[in-house]
């Protein structure tokens, strides 16, 4: 399957690559869960391949889609403005440990990635 600019979408995730992804994500999956997830991921890759196979004229803008949404029908953007939370002190008081207005959280051990 050829993607945009000649990239090729793989048609299936090999078992070794899938296991590497599971290890990187630090997932604990049973054999059945792992097989289900790999099967679903491969189905997604096939769907992407099907989409890549659709002929699109080269002059079609990359962000176009089938539903027009011109500025005339879009709602106006609202102004962003910051609001302080009136209950901030009450919320912070519920934390098990604080340092001033900061929450203290337990240190998480780091794991070196290969």
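-> sequence recovered:
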């Amino acid at each position: 399957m050829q993607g945009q600019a000649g990239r090729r979408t793989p048609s299936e995730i090999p078992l070794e690559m899938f296991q590497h992804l599971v290890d990187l994500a630090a997932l604990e999956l049973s054999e059945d869960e792992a097989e289900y997830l790999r099967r679903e991921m491969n189905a997604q890759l096939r769907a992407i391949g099907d989409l890549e196979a659709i002929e699109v004229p080269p002059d079609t803008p990359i962000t176009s889609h089938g539903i027009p949404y011109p500025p005339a029908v879009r709602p106006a953007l609202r102004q962003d403005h910051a609001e302080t939370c009136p209950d901030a002190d009450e919320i912070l008081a519920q934390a098990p440990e604080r340092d001033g207005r900061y929450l203290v959280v337990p240190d998480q051990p780091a794991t070196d990635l290969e």
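Residues 1-5 have pLDDT under 50 and may be disordered.
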